[in-house]
Amino acid sequence: MVAEVRVAAPRANGPEDQSLDAPDRWDRIDWREQEEQVRRLRQRIFKAAHEQDWAKVRNLQKLMLRSRANTLVSVRQVTQRNAGRKTAGIDGEVALTSEARAEVAVRVRQSITSWQPRAVRRVYIPKASNRAKLRPLGIPVILDRCHQARVRNALEPEWEARFEPRSYGFRPGRGCHDAISAIYNVCKGPMAKRVWALDADLAAAFDKIDHDRLLAAIGSFPARELIRGWLKAGVFEAGKGFAPTGEGTPQGGVISPCLLNVALHGLEEAAGVCYETSGPRAGETKPGSPVLIRYADDGAPRTPKEVSV
């Protein structure tokens, strides 16, 4: 079987694509160029959001969602790079060959405006902290994962420009060691005024996200209805059948960590964190203000934690 996938022109929204016959020419795509196009467009979204030019943000996000480079990079990430590439959703489909990946890219491209999210497959894996206990994962079908990767590339840079500065969980280029460093810098020295810490674990954070609050937070994001579809798609579990989802976002979804961060945005304000807005200490927390540091216990989509210092 021969499939056809299209390669992006020199610009992400450039003219007609050069056709590509699978599988051999899939492996000859200039991936560095495709990834560079996506990176540049992500930077433009971030910059516009930082400047609070929301009309420009939305236009750039629409451009990202139409981008052929974004489609190709997303399919490659899901089918070649992600740890779960060999794990199938309810349809049993994976894409482990160049031909299969090219075919998936064609189908993703063709369904950009018409895709209807499907239920996730519920599986259980041992917890890293206690292997005697299991945690649930929701595994989307492969096309859902590819579409989620596309949408994440449009949504994430906007929120990276908006997130609180001491939020370290599930964010690109950030991790536990950054949180450790932040805690140390707050507490170090003999003149430190913060002398105690509150460690709070958000139990079942992925499972308890309020859908209405999350959708209100993302506002007029161009793929808002697609995100709603993923939230409401439901779960299929062997031996139990289908169950609807009234809250939460499935661990195992490509976009779920980003959605969790959006849902948790505002915790600093809720905790009473106050920053200096002018003068030589602008950007620092005010005297008497708590410092909230949020992190995830590892790089996988597990429960985030909070530390108030």
How would you summarize what this structure contains?
With 309 residues, this protein is α+β, with helices and mostly antiparallel strands.
Notes on the protein architecture:
By secondary structure, this protein is of the alpha+beta class. It is built from ten helices and nine strands. The strands form three sheets. The chain has a four-stranded mixed β-sheet with strand order 4-3-6-7, with no helix packed on it. A three-stranded antiparallel β-sheet has the order 5-9-8. Strand 3 and strand 4 (134-139) form a beta hairpin. Helix 2 packs antiparallel against helix 5 and helix 3 crosses helix 5. It starts with a strand and ends with a strand.
Mean pLDDT figure:
88
Radius of gyration: 21 Å
The global form is globular
Report the uncertain regions.
Answer: 1-18, 299-304
Between the first and last Cα atoms, what is the distance in angstroms? 60 Å
Alpha plus pi helix count: 10
Write the layout of secondary structure elements.
Blueprint: E1 4-7, E2 18-21, H1 31-50, H2 54-66, H3 68-81, H4 98-110, E3 120-126, E4 134-139, H5 142-160, H6 176-187, E5 198-201, H7 211-218, H8 224-232, E6 235-237, E7 241-243, H9 256-264, H10 267-271, E8 292-296, E9 304-308
Parallel strand pairs: 3-6
Antiparallel strand pairs: 1-2, 3-4, 5-9, 6-7, 8-9
List keywords for this structure.
single chain, 309 residues, alpha+beta, four-stranded mixed sheet, 10 helices, globular
